[in-house]
């Protein structure tokens, strides 16, 4: 059963506008959340993360929001650039101090930023 | 460090053959993961190791799949016998704390 879900397989955004990628999870034990970016023929690379004690984390053009009560997180990219075109994976991890360090990934959202 | 290294990058094999995928994690990382990427399930966790010991293999789809980590610098994922539905990209990742670093993946095609 998919514990991390990305319900939008694809998203197209005009350059300069905001991209919003969404992710839902089902396991309340998840304590740490990450976003990965993947280009074709490459492995996923870490983008940004957030701990469950926060509701927002910002890194340049990238901001991740966490709504624990809704078990929902989102990644905002503003302004979007053509180089942001990639597949974005949401991932979640239980508290590494209690249950180990496994990461569960969603199905990915393919973002296309149109110049 | 060169990052996580996987080999081969591409593998084409006939149904019924044994396939072995290899992974060299980042030195010093104590967790190693094997993932399979498919359109339907995204990045699916197959198995992971902590300090060379398998911790959770519940994601391994069938007994045809097996994984080993004989030492801290090497792991294998074996499929025997392989089937066309095993065709996918297989990723190895290693981790020390709260971030997994991925290799470039092995694209497996079983014909």
What does it look like?
The complex is a heterodimer of chains A (115) and B (111). By secondary structure, chain A is mainly beta. Chain A has one helix and eleven strands; from the N terminus they run βββββββββαββ. Chain A has one helix at 96-99; strands at 4-5, 10-14, 19-25, 30-38, 45-51, 56-59, 62-67, 72-77, 86-94, 104-105, 109-114. In chain A, the strands form two sheets. In chain A, strands 2, 4, 5, 9, 10 and 11 form a six-stranded mixed β-sheet that branches. The radius of gyration of chain A is 14 Å and the shape is globular. With 111 residues, chain B is mostly beta strands. Helices cover 0% and strands 57% of the residues of chain B. Chain B contains no helices and eleven strands. Chain B has strands at residues 5-7, 10-13, 19-24, 31-38, 42-50, 53-56, 65-71, 74-79, 88-95, 100-102, 106-110. In chain B, the strands form two sheets. In chain B, strands 2, 4, 5, 6, 9, 10 and 11 form a seven-stranded mixed β-sheet that branches. In chain B, a hairpin with a 4-residue loop joins β9 (88-95) and β10 (100-102). Chain B is globular. The chains are: A mainly beta (115), B mainly beta (111). Chain A binds chain B through residues 2, 6, 32, 34, 36, 41-46, 49, 89, 91, 93, 96, 100-108, and chain B through 4, 31, 33, 35, 39-45, 48, 50, 55-56, 91, 93, 95, 97-105.
Ordered list of secondary-structure elements with their pairings:
The complex is a heterodimer of chains A (115) and B (111).
Chain A: E1 4-5, E2 10-14, E3 19-25, E4 30-38, E5 45-51, E6 56-59, E7 62-67, E8 72-77, E9 86-94, H1 96-99, E10 104-105, E11 109-114
Parallel strand pairs in A: 2-11
Antiparallel strand pairs in A: 1-3, 3-8, 4-5, 4-9, 6-7, 7-8, 9-10, 9-11
Chain B: E1 5-7, E2 10-13, E3 19-24, E4 31-38, E5 42-50, E6 53-56, E7 65-71, E8 74-79, E9 88-95, E10 100-102, E11 106-110
Parallel strand pairs in B: 2-11
Antiparallel strand pairs in B: 1-3, 3-8, 4-5, 4-9, 5-6, 7-8, 9-10, 9-11
